[in-house]
Amino acid sequence: MYDKYMSDVMSPYANPDTDLVVRSLNDVPKTPFLPSPALFFNQLFQAVIQGEKDGFDGVVVGCCADPAVRDSKDLVNIPVTGPFEAAVRTSPAFGRLGVVAPQINGSEDENLPETANWARALVREYQVDEYVATIRSAPTGHPSDEDTTRLFSEDPDALRELVLGGMETSMRTTAKEQAKAALVDDEASVLFFSCTLWGGMTGLIAEELEAVILDPVITPLKYVELLAAQNKY
């Protein structure tokens, strides 16, 4: 239910010679946010392999937790990356990074971040501790189980708008507050809003923040375009 939205966010920023394709995984639990990764790793691996067969020059796994990105790289001969990797590889060019991650209480079928420890683990995995000034959590809303169940069957478009509305509210409030604290208290100079559902929303607060802002959807698009171009040399 997010495919067109994500495509609309990225398309204006794609290179003229980039063919942008957004695909969802089949046979995964229907949740408004990320289901448990253990329930979709195999589907993701098959999608990455199929992408190479279909002639793709690169793949972005569209979740800021970068699920299965490391293992996916070993399956194909095209670059595979995720939003978090793209952010931590891009940010050193501009300064020290402040990560703002959502804090969401979801259903038992979801794997949602009640803390930001997943982001700290990725920082260690990518060995970029020296470039990261801080990682902060921003409380973010979640539709009720009743609304989620009803809207999935009756009106998925309304569910998408409900979720995105909650993400926009947090961008204007809790995420903005944490971003300002990252700049003032932790001396970050680059900000990464670490959830793809914040994609396209950073402009709502950009004028209030004196920092380079890395969008969670546009940043990996530009990064994979670079990787794909390098892979052709």
Description:
By secondary structure, this protein is α/β, with parallel strands linked by helices. It has one domain (3-231): Rossmann fold (3-Layer(aba) Sandwich). The protein has helices at residues 3-10, 41-53, 69-73, 83-90, 117-126, 145-154, 156-172, 174-184, 218-231, and strands at residues 59-60, 80-81, 97-103, 132-139, 190-193, 212-214. The strands form 2 sheets. The protein has a 4-stranded parallel beta sheet, sandwiched between helices. Helix 3 (69-73) links the parallel strand 1 (59-60) and strand 2. Helix 6 (145-154) packs across helix 7 (156-172). The longest helix has 17 residues, at 156-172. 38% of the residues are buried. The mean pLDDT is 94.
Can you tell me the overall shape?
A: globular
Q: Give Rg in angstroms.
A: 17 Å
Beta content: 5-15%
What top-tier CATH class fits best? Alpha Beta
- Percent helix range: 40-55%
Between the first and last Cα atoms, what is the distance in angstroms? 37 Å
Biggest beta-sheet profile: 4 strands, parallel
Total domains:
1
